C-alpha cells in the first residue's frame, strides 16, 4: 500500500510524496525545492527518501534534486532528452521502472518541454506540467500538435485514473474553461466546488481523467461547441482537433 500526499512548494507547486508503509521508504516527484521535503523527513525520522522522479527540466521541478540526493542518497530518475541535475537513470518513452515496489510506465509527452515525461502506475498518473486540472501546460518548447498528441495519449488511460499534476492552477483554468463553454454545467459545478476548496486554502488535486474529459477544454476539442468557439476566436475554420487545440492554447496564453 502506497500513500500519496502533497508537500506544497513555492506559491502553487505540489511535490508529490509517495510512502511505502511496509519498507518505510518514500519517493518524491518533481522536488523543485528541497526544503519542504527535508522538513517532512525531519518530522518523520523513521522514513527514508529512496527515489526522486522528475518529469522535466524546469527549475520549479528540479531545484531541490541535487541537495536531496546528496543528503539522502536517493536514486534520481528523469527524462533522457533533458538536462536533469544528478540524474542516475535516463528514461525514454515506454520504459518501465520499479519504485517502492510499484511498476511505473514512462510516457514521452512532448509539448510543454520537448523531453517531458509522465509516470503511470495502474490508475495513478504523475504528469508534471503536461495535463493540469482543467487545463494544460504552456508550449515552451513543443508544437501544438505535439502537445495535442501527448494529451490524447494521457486521455486514453482508464477514466478513473487519478491525475497528479504539479500546479494548483485549477480555479483559473476553470475560469478559462467557462469562457470556452459558458453553458457547460459540469464546468460550472466544478468551478463552484473548486472555489469553495480554494477559499478554505485546500488542494483541488488529484483530479480524475473522467472529470477532465467533462471539464477540461483541451481534452474537449472534438466537441462542436468548443470547435465553434475556437473558430470564432481566431477567425478561421479549424480543421482538426490539433488546430482547435492550437487556437485554444494561444487564446489561453493571453486570457
Ligand atoms: Zn514546467
Ligand atoms: Fe512547473
Structural notes for this entry:
Monomer. Its cofactor is Zn(2+). Its EC number is 3.1.2.6. With 255 residues, the protein is an alpha/beta fold. It has one domain: Metallo-beta-lactamase, Chain A. The protein has 9 helices and 14 strands. The protein has a 6-stranded mixed β-sheet with strand order 1-2-3-4-5-6, with helices on one face. It has a 6-stranded mixed β-sheet with strand order 7-8-9-10-13-14. A hairpin with a 3-residue loop joins strand 1 and strand 2. The structure holds zinc ion and fe (iii) ion. The site of zinc ion has 5 residues, from loops.
Low-confidence spans: none
Secondary-structure content class: alpha/beta
In the sheet with the most strands, the strands line up as 1-2-3-4-5-6
CATH superfamily: Ribonuclease Z/Hydroxyacylglutathione hydrolase-like
Could you tell me how far the N terminus lies from the C terminus, measured between alpha carbons in angstroms?
42 Å
User: Percent helix among the residues?
Assistant: 25-40%
Overall mean confidence score, pLDDT? 98
Count of discrete structural domains: 1
CATH architecture: 4-Layer Sandwich
- Biggest sheet character: 6 strands, mixed
Q: How many alpha or pi helices?
A: 9
CATH topology: Metallo-beta-lactamase, Chain A
What bound compounds does this protein have? zinc ion, fe (iii) ion
Radius of gyration: 18 Å
Question: How large is the share of residues in beta strands?
Answer: 25-35%
Please report the first level of CATH classification, the CATH class: Alpha Beta
Tell me how many strands there are. Answer: 14
The helix/strand series, from N terminus to C terminus, equals: EEEHEHHEEEEEEEEHEHHEHHH
Assign an overall shape: globular
Catalytic activity: an S-(2-hydroxyacyl)glutathione + H2O = a 2-hydroxy carboxylate + glutathione + H(+)
Domain Metallo-beta-lactamase: 12-167
Function: Thiolesterase that catalyzes the hydrolysis of S-D-lactoyl-glutathione to form glutathione and D-lactic acid.
EC number: 3.1.2.6
Amino acid at each position: 500500500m502506497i500513500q500519496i500526499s502533497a508537500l506544497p512548494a513555492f506559491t502553487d507547486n505540489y511535490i508529490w510524496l509517495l510512502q511505502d508503509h511496509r519498507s518505510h521508504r518514500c519517493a518524491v516527484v518533481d522536488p523543485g525545492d528541497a526544503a519542504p521535503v527535508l522538513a517532512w523527513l525531519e518530522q518523520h525520522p523513521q522514513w527514508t527518501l529512496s527515489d526522486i522522479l522528475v518529469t522535466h527540466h524546469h527549475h520549479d521541478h528540479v531545484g531541490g534534486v541535487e541537495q536531496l540526493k546528496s543528503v539522502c542518497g536517493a536514486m534520481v530518475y528523469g527524462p533522457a532528452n533533458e538536462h536533469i541535475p544528478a540524474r542516475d537513470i535516463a528514461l525514454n518513452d515506454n520504459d518501465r521502472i520499479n519504485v517502492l515496489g510499484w511498476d511505473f510506465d514512462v510516457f514521452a509527452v512532448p509539448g510543454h518541454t520537448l523531453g517531458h515525461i509522465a509516470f503511470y502506475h495502474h490508475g495513478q498518473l504523475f504528469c508534471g506540467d503536461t495535463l493540469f486540472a482543467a487545463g494544460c501546460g504552456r508550449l515552451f518548447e513543443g508544437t501544438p500538435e505535439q502537445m495535442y498528441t501527448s494529451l490524447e495519449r494521457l486521455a486514453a488511460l482508464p477514466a478513473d485514473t487519478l491525475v497528479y499534476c504539479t500546479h494548483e492552477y485549477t480555479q483559473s483554468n476553470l475560469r478559462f474553461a467557462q469562457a470556452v463553454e459558458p453553458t457547460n454545467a459540469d464546468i460550472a459545478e466544478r468551478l463552484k466546488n473548486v472555489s469553495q476548496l480554494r477559499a478554505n486554502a485546500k488542494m483541488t488535486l488529484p483530479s480524475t481523467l473522467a472529470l477532465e474529459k467533462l471539464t477540461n477544454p483541451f481534452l474537449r476539442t472534438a466537441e462542436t461547441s468548443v470547435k465553434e468557439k475556437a473558430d470564432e476566436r481566431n477567425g478561421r475554420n479549424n480543421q482538426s482537433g490539433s488546430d482547435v487545440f492550437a487556437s485554444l492554447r494561444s487564446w489561453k496564453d493571453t486570457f
